[in-house]
Amino acid sequence: MARAVSPRRKLVFTLLAWAVGLLIFFPIYWTILTSFKTEGQAINDPPLFFAFDWTLENYALVQERSDYMRYLWNSVIIAGGSTLLGILVAVPAAWSMAFVPSKRTKDILLWMLSTKMLPAVGVLYPIYLLFIEMGLLDTRLGLVVVLMLINLPIIVWMLYTYFREIPVDILEAARMDGANLRSEIFYVLAPMAIPGIASTVLLSLILAWNEAFWTLNLTAAKAAPLTAFIASYSSPEGLFYAKLSAASTMAIAPILILGWFSQKQLVRGLTFGAVK
Amino acid sequence: MILRNALGAATALAMLATVSAHADTITIATVNNGDMIRMQGMTDDFTKQTGHDVEWVTLEENVLRQRVTTDITTKGGAFDIMTIGMYEAPIWGANGWLVPLDDLSAGYDVDDILPAMRGGLSHEGTLYAAPFYGESSMIMYRTDLMEKAGMEMPDAPSWAFIAKAARAMTDRDEEINGICLRGKAGWGEGGAFITAMSNSFGARWFDEDWNAQFDSREWSDTLNFFVNMMNDAGPPGYATNGFNENLSLFQQGKCGMWIDATVAASFVTNPDDSKVADKVGFALAPDNGLGKRSNWLWAWALAIPAGTQNEAAAKQFIEWATSKGYIELVADKEGWANVPPGARVSLYENANYKDIPFAQMTLDSILSADPNNSTVDPSPYVGIQFAAIPEFAGIATEVSQEFSAAYAGQQSVEEALEKAQAITNEAMEAAGYR
Amino acid sequence: MATAHSRSAARLMMAPAVVLLLGWMLVPLAMTLWFSFRKYLPLRGGDLGFTGWENYSRFISSSSFWPSIQATLIIVGSVLAITVLLGLLLALLLDQPIWGQGIVRILVIAPFFVMPTVSALVWKNMFMDPVNGFFAHVWKAFGAEPVVWLSDFPLGSIIMIVSWQWLPFATLILLTAMQSLDREQLDAAEMDGASPLARFWYLVLPHLSRAISVVILIQTIFLLSIFAEIFVTTAGAFGTKTLTYLIYQRVLESQNVGLGSAGGVYAIILANIVALFLMRIVGKSLER
What is the CA radius of gyration of chain A? Predict the structure, then answer.
């Protein structure tokens, strides 16, 4: 169903939308641009947009000082591991809530969300002591578990609202045909649920990637992810805008690229069933 | 053939085993200051000498502090060496959390460490952390601007002179601020500066019964003097400026004077980073004729948390990083101006180092600081820009937040002092001092 | 329709998530409660015994307590208002037929992928710095005195940074909800001569109410605990100390775990009050 739109109106809206989009994106663009300047050019007044000597010097310096790949790898493992684990735990829970709802389903969901309200810093000491006790300090495993628990409520809720959109009639029909629980899941549900799961995975990855309190406080050298990498560039002595920009670009680039490629998925999943 | 390969592999394995029996991997937490980053670059030399590998955890100062404090108080054991300051070392040492450094090798020459540094990093005569570099604070000023203002900087100026010179040097149209000082909240930032400054005004944090003294005339004089001078001659938004912001302003030629850490001298005179490298003069931090100057004393030092698995290797690292040899290594590779200053007497006796323009003033500043006797009126605490009690960091951060709000014009100096008094007394009561 | 069999299967499937979260909630909660009644000073040797309600009364009687509640509510409320309002406008705009819609959408959601620490550092240094920041350059170009953002508009600056981070989230959800709106109904309303405002008010807004609820609920949970943005920018100075930040100061800067734990309990209470409040407003539209 195409709406008749005058080209002029479309042009006006296009210009407006692009202006707003570029404005919102500008800080990221500026960071990326600054990462290719020298420190002197980075603070130049007036600001330099194109006419400067593009240099990769900052990236080389950052790489020389800290082994980027190691932090990146830890980030990938921690974000990926916590997401995988979270999905494994959350899918059955969300499935049963969506298809076998009881009176308490809503309460359980809200309770799960409420566990996110305990301020992290308040329990730093208890958790730290617990981690020492269990030998989890500075291990990826420890962070995988913690980040999984932190994001689990959101994951469950997202999956729940997504699963709820799957028409129950189909399930009924499958049951009539004598499908057992397993085939119900694999042949009927999975194909319909996978887009929702995919977008949940993406959101969980983003949240885990960007988590900066626990990843910083529960690691030292071995398990430190990109959030720790950034903490060493945050305000060193002397001029640092260009180096900070390079480090920032390196820290956000992987997740940004992933996000861009899969933004359609994200758009679908982020709605939490709000579309319905 | 197969046998020979297997034999070869076995020998290689055995050799690997003998090496790894001695080679440890030590984890070091440190702050992202220039000298420490240089040290990271030199790590290969240490590994070559000892076979030990080093893993660095480099963090911004505030993050580092929270990270190592959490680990040491819970005996977490995440680090083999921690970079700590003069505030932490005696407190942690007293708690038995640090390995005493009383058996360093003869070649290390522990007596060569500047007595002020050694004293500040010891508890009851036992050294708990070895100074990597030490600092006091002093005036760095633009000789050209001073001349233009028709004034001459004495070696040991008074606050009255500084305020006059600051106003004379200020040129708002040219974006030149007569004086740049720390106003940023945080006990180690603006809190450290104003506390050191207050000493020269005769103020103190506590009287001998641990009563807060912010209701005294001396504190009110200090703060009013500071705010008036900064409003007339300081940079815009000085309430958010710390060491780093001021360094960058000074390097860009936007400050006439800057009173801050002596280590900054090598940054502002480095032509690679500083536009004014050849126009910087140095003088002792100002006083008010009361017998105390406004300079502080600080050291970034390396300490070993008690209970670490790699104590021996950690000690080896500390002996390497804070040795005379390390200083020579840096001098060799990066020049004498870039060696870690303020830790060793021998550095200041070195003929090569005497040519460095800020060397003598740095030493004089360090020597004129006395943590055991920092205030005009008697006080119960040790420390110049801090009081070496565990509660201080928390209290002083809150107090300095009130001061910063006054600098920003959000409240009056009187209000800030009133709140500071209440905050401090409340916290000291909670801690059981009063 | 659910059989007893499928009910027990459902319970079984829910069990891991519920048990894990129960553990994740109860263990720290129990420890927080325990510590909140202890005099726990790590730098003075650790757990120094029972103190009754002292930590609770001390935390609440501190001169920083009520201002911190106020700052928390201002930040959460303002960011919610800004992101929902601007998100609505943006969603309306992006819902129009435009050239390069996909790319514009990517530009708009990008901030959501940036770590809070990174965005705080970038905003603070490269934009808000009164001497070298981008804004200062722009202000000077127009002959104006650069604004000292972090001390002149401390709360405003933080709200701006946080809103920038969360605007994409709100926009995305509202946009997707908008795209499911019944076009024919809208067109019909237009033909009947309903003004754009009336169409928005009577057709679009009701349709979006559920999406708006979701935005508010999820964002509130995250906004109540923002930390990095404050830590990096003002470090709690100039009245930007939120309850979360105050607890951080008590636990880590003052090294008083007991007092901080009591603060944690207050934070849970506040969160629940806010949650209850939210449920009143939001809960209804979730029921649908």
Answer: 23
* Chain C residues lying within 8 Å of B430, measured CB to CB: 58, 256, 259
pLDDT band at C279 (very low <50, low <70, confident <90, very high): confident
Same fold, B2-135+297-354 and B137-296+371-430: yes
CA-derived radius of gyration, chain B: 23
Residues 83-142 of chain A with CB under 8 A from chain C are 89-90, 92-93, 95-97, 99-100, 102, 106, 108, 110, 112-127, 130
Q: Which of residues 28-67 of A touch B (CB under 8 A)?
A: 39, 43, 64-66
Residue type, C266: Y
The C-alpha of A235 sits at a distance from chain B's nearest C-alpha, in angstroms, of 6
Chain A segment 123-142 residues within 8 A of B by beta carbon are: 124-125, 128-129, 131-132, 137-138
The dotted CATH code for C65-240 is: 1.10.3720.10
Q: Are C122 and A90 inside 8 Å of each other by CB? A: no
Q: What is the pTM of this model?
A: 0.89
Three-state DSSP at B82 gives strand
| Domain chopping of chain A, boundaries | 7-60, 67-269
Cβ count near A260 (within 10 Å): 15
What number is the ipTM of this complex?
0.88
Cβ atoms of B286 and B157 within 8 Å: the answer is yes
Report in angstroms the alpha-carbon separations of B399 from B66, B425, C131. 19, 11, 26
Apex C114 CA angle, A248 and C126, nearest 5? 50
- Does the domain formed by B2-135+297-354 have CATH 3.40.190.10? yes
CA dist C101 → A9, A14, A15, C91, C97 (Å): 15, 8, 11, 12, 8
Class of domain B137-296+371-430: alpha beta
* Residue matched to tokens 């002149």: C152
CA distance C75 to chain B (A): 19
pLDDT tens digits, one per residue of C203-240: 888 888 878 887 888 888 889 888 889 998 988 889 89
**CATH homologous superfamily of A67-269:** MetI-like (1.10.3720.10)
For chain B, give every domain's residue range.
2-135+297-354, 137-296+371-430
In this structure, are residues C40 and C251 in contact, taking their beta carbons and an 8 Å threshold? no
Residue C283 banded pLDDT, cuts 50, 70, 90: low
Spans of chain A, pLDDT less than 50? 1-2, 271-276
CB contact under 8 A, B74 and A128: yes
Whether B114 and B345 have beta carbons less than 8 Å apart is answered as yes
In which region does residue B376 sit, left (phi positive, over 0), alpha (psi from -120 to 50) or beta (all else)? alpha
Residue identified by tokens 């180096």 is: A243
